[in-house]
Amino acid sequence: MFPGETILTGARSTCYDCNKELKFRVLSSPAGYYVGTQCEQCGPHSRETGYFKTIEEAQRELESYESAGALPHMRT
User: Fold this and answer.
1) Which of 18, 33, 59, 67 is the most exposed place for a label (fewest CB within 10 A)?
2) Which of 27, 65, 16, 22 has the alpha carbon at shortest distance from 40?
3) Across 4-11, average pLDDT
């Protein structure tokens, strides 16, 4: 991860363009599925995890976040 790529490393939790609050969700790219944030109007914003081969793996990671209140790399 690069500085500012994740909310933990400095990405904003609101959209830069329209200032709407961003929520974690499962997203996809050619590299695979990941947990990140995306503005409905402006597009992808952050990638909070590495890539997963299946949507089910990424969904489990998101559910882990929702039950623990933080993604694994954010937990202390």
Assistant:
1) 67
2) 22
3) 68
